[in-house]
Structure formats: structure tokens, C-alpha cells
Design a protein that fits this description.
The chain is mainly α and 107 residues long. The chain is 49% helix and 9% strand. It is built from five helices and two strands; from the N terminus they run βαβαααα. Helix 2 packs across helix 3. It starts with 5 loop residues before the first strand and ends in an 11-residue tail after the last helix.
């Protein structure tokens, strides 16, 4: 990481203890993020896509790992970038509706 990087972690209590110390000791800046804000978290949406796809098919326990990897491999960087580019619009919509859940064609 370089001086312009900010490590984003949500505000869950688990991150407030010993796991935060190494980051602080190495001078990595953090960002104060609410503990539950899936509307603005691209990875949460990626997990949601995968869960929805996996629900369509029944897998034995030993097949779950391979199925998750196969779904993850389908997610392209372009899809992620497109959703990241939409963030300013999502932030505006959240601000205007008081932070309630929102949907768009992408999410």
C-alpha cells in the first residue's frame, strides 16, 4: 500500500479491538464506515449474486466450495467497476431517501 490508500472496514465491534492495532501501527489510514451499509458495499452485492445463483442448484457439502469459486470467477472487473462508478448516484439516492434500501438496474 502507498500513502494514498485508505483501508475500509465496517464498524463492527470485532474490528475495533486487536485486529485494528497492526493497521494503526503501520500508519494505514482507515475510513469510519457504518457497521451495516450494503447499499454502498460492492463486495456485499457480489456475495448476494453468488448466493442467489447457488440457491438455484442443490449441492452436496463438498461441492459448495467449487460452486462458490465458479460463481466468483464469473464476476468480471468491468462489472465491479461499473458498480463502483455508480456509487455517487447511489450515495445521492441514499441521502435523499434517509438511508433506506435502494435498488437499481445494476444491483
Amino acid at each position: 500500500l502507498g500513502p494514498n490508500y485508505i483501508f475500509m472496514e465496517d464498524g463492527l465491534k470485532v474490528y475495533l479491538g486487536h485486529t485494528r492495532l497492526p493497521r494503526l501501527e503501520h500508519g494505514v489510514r482507515g475510513f469510519n464506515w457504518p457497521p451495516f451499509l450494503p447499499n454502498l458495499n460492492v463486495i456485499e452485492k457480489a456475495w448476494q449474486w453468488m448466493k442467489e445463483e447457488l440457491k438455484k442448484i442443490f449441492y452436496e457439502d463438498e461441492d459448495i466450495r467449487a460452486a462458490i469459486q465458479a460463481e466468483w470467477d464469473k464476476v468480471t472487473m468491468e462489472e465491479i467497476r461499473t458498480r463502483v462508478k455508480e456509487m455517487p448516484t447511489r450515495c445521492e439516492r441514499l441521502r435523499n431517501n434517509g438511508g433506506k434500501a435502494i435498488k437499481s438496474a445494476l444491483w
